[in-house]
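Weekly modeling sync, notes
Attendees: AB, CL, MP (scribe)

Item 1: holo prediction request
CL wants a bound-state model with glycinamide ribonucleotide before deciding which constructs to order. AB pointed out that an apo prediction alone won't tell us much about the pocket. Agreed to run with the ligand included and paste results into these notes for async review.

Input as submitted:
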Amino acid sequence: MALKVAVLISGRGSNLQALIDAFGPQVADSPVRIVVVLSNRPDAPGLERAAKAGLKTAILDHKSFAARAEFDLALDREIRAAGAEFVVLAGFMRLLTEGFIAAWKDRMINIHPALLPSFKGLDTHRRALETGVKLHGCTVHFVRHETDTGPIIAQAAVPVLPDDDEAKLASRVLRAEHRIYPLALRLIAEGKVRVEGERAVIDRMPAPDGVLLNPADS
Ligand code: GAR
């Protein structure tokens, strides 16, 4: 039985697109079924991608709710009404309330454009460049109350190059995001990820060989 997921977006939806390509209605025997794509912004371009793929969409405009808790209650209702059992945040730029996060504990994941616990929050690529790190990347993690924390499921590292600007670095990281998000969600759907304390453990998975050096030594 496929894992029924709700994907939450706020904008462009390129991660949503990677999930559609991996698990969309066109994929036979997918371990994941996207039952609804929800946006808090009526004009999010990602909604178009979802509709094009034949997925159910819903808009919950946060501006029409008086309080954060009310918005989250409505969100919870929509997710459950669609039959979702798991929540995937894909560029969803709203802070969620403690109650919502507790209700979906270990059943909600996020992708963050940095190698956590470095560069939590916004403007991760600018801060990575300013700091001068030589490796940067992205992280898929279960969601906890404190922003950009929670058991880490998968990470991808990319080199930071001398002539990088924010846009170049962002696009290198984004390509990595599009690989690890479907990978992490597949592992979860296949029951290969368990949470032990505040760590996510994945058994018997191939790991890459060697070391990523930047600068390289040859
Ligand atoms: C992605 O880079 C994602 O990692 C980031 O927003 C972008 C959404 O792009 N998420 C966060 O910063 C969450 N704090 P997309 O809409 O094209 O998937």
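Recorded for review: Helices lie at 14-23, 45-52, 68-81, 98-103, 124-131, 166-189.
Action items: CL to compare against the apo run; MP to circulate these notes.
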